[in-house]
Amino acid sequence: MRLQFILSEIWIGLRRNLSMAISVVLVTMVSMYLLGLGLLAQRQADTFKGYWYDRVQVTIFMCTEDSGEPACDKKAVTEEQKNAIKAQLDQMRPLVKNVYYESEQQAYDRFQKQFRNSPLAGNVRVGDIPQNFRVQLSDPTKYEVIVSSFEGAPGVGAVQDQKKVLDKFFKGINYITIFSFVLAALMVLCAVLLMATTIRQAAFSRRRETGIMKLVGASNFTIRFPFMMETLLSSLLGAAAATGLLWATANYGFNRYLNQLILDQAFIGVSDVWAITPWMVVGVAVLSIGTSWVTLWRYLRV
Amino acid sequence: MIRFENVTKVYPRSSRPALHDINLEVNRGEFVFVVGQSGSGKSTLLRLALREEQATRGTVLVAGHELGRLPHRKVPRLRREIGTVFQDFRLLPNKTVYQNVAFALQVLGRSGHAIRQVVPETLEMVGLQGKEKRLPHELSGGEQQRVAIARAFVNKPAILLADEPTGNLDPTTSLEIVRLLDRINRTGTTIVMATHDDDIVNQLRKRVVELDNGEVIRDENQGVYGAAR
């Protein structure tokens, strides 16, 4: 009976205050969506790091006859020079984990494959990308050692560290993450203030009922519980909607579009959305219960 | 049942005390009229007993609780032992007569079975049988006050406080309402009724406590309204 009564009170309350309830749903949805995007961006950065740091390589490009680098002196690398570089790299183990040699044809093939959807692919001919050694390091942060050892060495055109390029990219992702967290924090603040206002308004519009409840000796719990549940329900609905939006973003944005366009494995997917969902739901629940508790304590005293 | 010992109440931002050094004892099963002009302290007396206000000085004892020491969370328990009726009825306009009375039990978590049994009994006692499905605005003032009394009494409180319950009613209806309170009093419920309806006080010949400027100036059994003047 009691449960049924309380449920009916909650239902009546939500219906009577429908526009406010909807606004709580929407504001919670937007704030949780932004927060979720921030969290997903963070996970994306981690996924990228995991993906790329495994593959990160220092590439030592050999000289070609067309090389612009002064060290090459317009002469292509000789077999002896190549062997000397290879031998020197072998001496640098265990810092050097793996060395792959890539011929001009192989470099061309890889490029064609990587950029098969891009108009760039058509403009590149065999020989445009020099033959090179791709060096994988056991500790990617120590790329300087390789750079200093091989830059300017006979037959070496250029030494390129991918990590440097990637770090710029990760910095970019980090800024996006911070930005979305700041936006999310502002929206969460909005949501909290709106919840508090909604409760105050609901408490005011139902002051007759709550007044009678107090008079006949209803417990604080009975008086406050419906207000709390209304807020909780609205905000959880908002969190559910936000999860739906994040799922759509991950599924249609990342899975279907980006993964096919660029690379597989390097992007987050729907499973990442499910991983952050429990945190968002718990966060929303704590936030709405906390907000309503404080607001009710202030505005609905016995 | 209710005891005021040297009770003084000063409202914030007011220099004059609303009640000044009041001593009053109401025994179990008594019917007491509290009379006096507006601003004499009648309502304050009832609000203190309900613990809607706290005494500035002195001790208030109600149904075995010392209200000055009653923790906040136990106030609801106190109020379950007190029924309250007001001049303005305070009914829920969108609930029927039956629902208004049942509401008082529902918020206390009573079972549906108990509610279905007690509410009709109480409505019959106050003379509202057959009007269970009416909404408050479809009732006369006297009937609305009966609903309020039914709601106050449905939980069988030990004490019933009535603050000017006949203030909005014509003399005949007022008398009916007080007769109803008298009937409730005979079931053993202690009744304290604040009023300035002299007719009623004179007809019922109950104990009369007169307040003036926050002080008890008269307390007599089987009193009349204006005996002191």
TrEMBL record, chain A:
Pfam families: FtsX, FtsX_ECD
Record keywords: Cell cycle, Cell division, Cell membrane, Membrane, Transmembrane, Transmembrane helix
Main location: membrane
Compartment annotation: Cell membrane
Keyword RNA-binding: no
A single Gene Ontology CC term: plasma membrane
Residues in ABC3 transporter permease C-terminal domain copies: 182-301
Transmembrane regions listed in the UniProt entry: 21-41, 173-199, 232-254, 274-296
Gene Ontology biological-process annotations: cell division
Stored InterPro entries: ABC3_permease_C, FtsX, FtsX_actino, FtsX_ECD
Gene3D superfamilies from the UniProt entry: 3.30.70.3040
Family the entry assigns: Belongs to the ABC-4 integral membrane protein family. FtsX subfamily.
Protein name: Cell division protein FtsX
Automatic annotation (TrEMBL), chain B:
Record bears the keyword Glycoprotein: no
GO biological process entries: cell division
Residue intervals passing through the bilayer: none
Membrane topology: Peripheral membrane protein
Subunit and partners: Homodimer. Forms a membrane-associated complex with FtsX.
Main location: membrane
Protein name, entry field: Cell division ATP-binding protein FtsE
Alphabetically ordered keywords of this record: ATP-binding, Cell cycle, Cell division, Cell membrane, Membrane, Nucleotide-binding
Subcellular location per the Swiss-Prot or TrEMBL entry: Cell membrane
Gene Ontology molecular functions: ATP binding; ATP hydrolysis activity; transmembrane transporter activity
Originating gene: ftsE
GO cellular component: plasma membrane
Database matches in SMART domains: AAA
